[in-house]
Amino acid sequence: MASPEVTHEQPALAAEGGALPRHVAIIMDGNGRWATMRGLSRTEGHKMGVEAVRRIVRYVGDLGIGTLTLFSFSAENWRRPPDEVRYLMGLLKLFIRRDLADLHARNVCIRVVGDRSSMPADILKLLEDAEVVTQANTSLTLVIAFNYGARQEIVQTARRLAARVAAGEIHANDIDAELFARNLDTAGLPDPDLVIRTSGEMRISNFLLWQAAYAEFVFAPVCWPDFDEAEFDRALNEFKRRDRRFGGLVARAGG
Ligand code: IPE
Ligand code: IPE
Ligand code: MG
Question: Residue 233 catalytic?
Answer without folding.
Answer: no
